[in-house]
Design brief:
The complex is a heterodimer of chains A (about 325) and B (about 260). Chain A is α+β, with helices and mostly antiparallel strands and about 325 residues long. Helix content of chain A is about 20%, strand content about 35%. Chain A is elongated. Chain B is an alpha/beta fold and about 260 residues long. Chain B has two domains: about 1-60, no CATH class; about 70-265. In chain B, strand 14 (about 245-250) and strand 15 (about 260-265) form a beta hairpin. Chain B is elongated and about 65 Å long. The termini of chain B are far apart. Classes of the chains: A alpha+beta (about 325), B alpha/beta (about 260). At the A-B interface, strand 9 and strand 11 of A face helix 4 of B.
C-alpha cells in the first residue's frame, strides 16, 4: 500500500479509481401510485449490474414527486448505461418493452436532454399493431414533445417517441472499503451507498449499490474476460500479490455510474466522506479504489482529490 | 412599437402579406409607405390607406381593422402583430411563428396552413378557421389558433397538426382531420366527419356521424398532458378535461384513428 492519507482518522490509500466513457440515458416512469412507479422501475433496472454480463448498467436515480413529472403523477427517474450507443438503444428498448410497457398504469418519458436521439416509443409503437396514435404536445416549457399512445388492455401505454443519450457519461467510479468483520463493513458500505446515491445523475448498479466480487481483467482460465480480484480476497491474504493488511477480514466495493464525470467525482466524494465518518466505530481499516494501472480508462479519480469536503478545493 | 393607423375604409381588398414587424424593421418611413398592398390595377400603397409610424421594434399594431384586410400576418415568422379591429380572410395563413392577436372578427380561413406561432381572435371567426384552402393538402399545420367567440362551419377542416381552441364552432368541426387537436365548448353537427386521426374535445355537440363508435370512459395519461397544455391557453377549455368524458372513436369510414371526447 502506498502513501498514507487520512480522512476522519481512516487511512485512505493514495490511489485512483479508473473509469470509462459510456453511453448513458435517463427516463422517467410514472404511475398512479408511488408503489407501482417503483415496481416498474425496479423491474426495469433488474439484472443490470454490469455491462459485461447484463448488457447494461441501470439504477434508480431519484423518486420524483408528482409536481416534478411530465404528467403530474408519482414517478421514478432511471439511469441506463451501455458500452456504446447502439448497445444502449437495444437494452433500452428491450427493458422498456418488457418491464415498463407490461406494467399496469405506467407511462414513460425522456429523463434527460442530450445530443443523441434514441427512438423509443417510435420503436415500441409497433406493439400497437397499427392502432397506436402519435401526438405532439408542448411541455411546461413550451417545447413540443411527441408521444405514442399504444392501446393495451388497461387503456393506453403512453411513451415518448424518443429519448436522448448524453455525451460525457462515465461508468466505473469505485471505492473499496477494507474492514474487519462482514457486518460492520457492510454497514459502512451501506452508509457510503446512501450518500453516493444521493448525488443527482449518479447510480450504483450493484445489489444494494455494493459489490463483493470485485474483478480484475482476464484470468488464469483461457477466455475469461474478468476474474476475481485476488489481491483483495481475504482468504488469499499472505500470498504474493495480496493487497490486504493482516487485520483485514472483508472488502466491499461500491461502483458508480453517472451522466457526467463531475457526477462520478461528487458521488465518490460523498461516499468516501460518509464511510470514513462512521468508519472508526465500525472497524473500517482503510479505503482504496480499483484501477487497471491507468491504461484502460480515460477518467482517473484520485482519492487525494476527494478528501476536501463538497464545495472545497480539489488538489 | 410600430403602428399602422387606418385612415379610411379601403377602396378594395388589401393584401397585407408583406407587412410584418420584421419586414418593416429595415425600411425607412418612405419605403414602408410605398409598399404595394392593393389587389387591383389601382396600385394602392401602404401610405395611401394607413398612417405609418415605425420604430424598428418587433411589435406592430394595426389600429382600426377592416374586413377587407386580407392575409394579415400571413408571412409572420417572429415578433408580435396586434390588430385593434376586424380582419379579412386568411389571417395568419401559412405563418411560421410569432403571435397575432385580433380584437375583432376574422374572416374565413384564419390560420390555414400555419406551421407555428399563436393566433388569437378575440371575437368571432368565419368559416374554415384553421381549415384547408381549396386544393391545399392541409389546414392548420402546427400553429395554435384560439377563437374566443364563435367560428363558422368547417373549423379545422383537414388540419394536420397543432391546436385549435374555439368557443363555439359550426357544423363539420374537425372534418377530414389528418391530425392535431381541436377543443370547443360547443360544436355543430357532424364533428370529425371523415377524420383520419386527431383529437376533438367538445362540451356539447350536434348530430354525430354513425361512423363513430363509443368506447366508454378512460382515465388516460394523454388527457393529463393535454389538460396541462390547454391550461396555459384557455382555462375554459382545460376545464372540459376535468369533467367526466365519453370517448368516441372514428371516423370508421376512414382510418379510424381519430377520437371525440365529449364532456358530460
Amino acid at each position: 500500500m502506498a502513501t498514507d492519507l487520512t480522512l476522519n482518522g481512516i487511512r485512505v490509500v493514495d490511489t485512483f479509481a479508473e473509469a470509462f466513457d459510456v453511453a448513458g440515458t435517463a427516463i422517467v416512469v410514472t404511475n398512479d401510485t408511488p408503489k407501482w412507479a417503483m415496481i416498474a422501475a425496479t423491474t426495469m433496472t433488474g439484472f443490470a449490474t454490469s455491462v459485461i454480463g447484463c448488457g447494461a448498467e441501470a439504477g434508480i436515480d431519484a423518486v420524483l414527486p408528482p409536481e416534478e413529472t411530465p404528467d403530474g403523477r408519482p414517478g421514478v427517474r432511471i439511469l441506463l448505461f451501455g458500452f456504446e450507443p447502439n448497445g444502449l438503444k437495444d437494452q433500452l428498448i428491450k427493458r422498456v418493452g418488457q418491464c415498463i410497457l407490461t406494467c399496469p398504469g405506467t407511462a414513460c418519458f425522456a429523463g434527460v436532454a442530450g445530443p443523441n436521439k434514441i427512438k423509443l416509443g417510435g420503436a415500441i409503437r409497433y406493439f400497437g399493431d397499427g392502432f397506436a396514435i402519435a401526438k405532439r404536445i408542448p411541455d411546461a416549457k413550451g417545447q413540443e414533445r411527441r408521444y405514442w399512445r399504444i392501446p393495451v388492455m388497461d387503456g393506453e401505454f403512453l411513451c415518448e417517441d424518443s429519448v436522448r443519450a448524453v455525451d460525457g457519461a462515465v461508468g466505473g467510479g469505485n471505492l473499496l472499503f477494507l474492514g474487519r468483520t462482514h457486518a460492520e463493513t457492510l454497514k459502512v458500505a451501506e452508509v457510503a451507498v446512501e450518500a453516493a446515491a444521493a448525488v443527482s445523475g449518479a447510480i450504483l448498479p450493484f445489489p444494494g449499490g455494493i459489490v463483493r466480487s470485485g474483478s480484475k481483467v482476464g484470468g488464469r482460465t483461457k477466455g475469461m474476460m474478468a476474474s476475481t480480484n485476488d489481491a483483495y480476497c481475504p482468504t488469499l491474504k499472505g500470498r504474493a500479490g495480496s493487497a490486504l493488511p493482516p487485520d483485514c477480514g472483508v472488502v466491499l466495493e461500491i461502483v458508480i455510474d453517472a451522466l457526467t464525470s463531475q457526477g462520478v467525482s461528487d458521488s465518490m466524494r460523498a461516499g468516501l466522506h460518509a464511510a470514513t465518518e462512521i468508519g472508526e466505530r465500525h472497524g473500517l481499516i482503510a479505503v482504496t479504489a480499483g484501477n487497471y494501472g491507468g491504461n484502460l480508462g480515460r477518467h482517473h479519480y484520485h482519492l487525494r482529490d476527494l478528501l476536501a469536503p463538497a464545495g472545497g478545493q480539489e488538489g | 412599437m410600430s403602428t399602422l393607423t387606418l385612415r379610411e375604409a379601403p377602396p378594395e381588398r388589401l393584401d397585407l402579406l408583406p407587412i410584418t414587424p420584421l419586414s418593416l424593421s429595415g425600411l425607412s418611413q418612405g419605403e414602408a409607405e410605398r409598399l404595394e398592398i392593393g389587389t387591383s390595377r389601382r396600385g394602392v400603397r401602404l401610405g395611401d390607406i394607413f398612417t405609418v409610424s415605425l420604430d424598428g421594434s418587433d411589435t406592430l399594431t394595426i389600429e382600426g381593422g377592416h374586413e377587407r384586410l386580407d392575409q394579415v400576418g400571413a408571412a409572420l415568422s417572429e415578433g408580435t402583430l396586434r390588430v385593434n379591429g376586424d380582419v379579412g380572410q386568411r389571417l395568419g395563413a401559412g405563418m411560421a411563428g410569432g403571435r397575432i392577436t385580433v380584437s375583432g372578427y376574422a374572416g374565413p380561413y384564419a390560420g390555414s396552413g400555419a406551421t407555428g406561432g399563436l393566433i388569437t381572435v378575440e371575437g368571432d371567426a368565419g368559416d374554415h378557421a384553421g381549415g384547408a384552402l381549396y386544393g391545399a393538402k392541409a389546414g392548420l399545420d402546427g400553429a395554435t389558433l384560439i377563437v374566443r367567440g364563435r367560428a363558422g362551419d368547417h373549423c379545422g377542416d383537414r388540419m394536420r397538426r397543432g391546436t385549435i381552441l374555439v368557443g363555439r364552432a359550426g357544423a363539420h368541426a374537425g372534418a377530414r382531420m389528418i391530425a392535431g387537436t381541436l377543443a370547443a365548448l360547443e360544436v355543430g353537427d357532424l364533428p370529425g366527419f371523415g377524420m383520419r386521426r386527431g383529437t376533438l374535445v367538445v362540451g356539447r355537440h350536434g348530430a354525430l356521424s354513425p361512423t363513430f363508435v363509443e368506447t366508454g370512459s378512460h382515465d388516460l395519461v394523454y388527457l393529463r398532458l393535454l389538460a396541462r397544455h390547454l391550461q396555459g391557453l384557455s382555462e375554459a377549455h382545460a376545464a372540459l378535461l376535468a369533467r367526466p368524458l365519453r370517448r368516441y372513436s372514428g371516423d370508421l369510414a376512414t382510418l379510424a384513428k381519430g377520437e371525440i371526447w365529449v364532456a358530460a
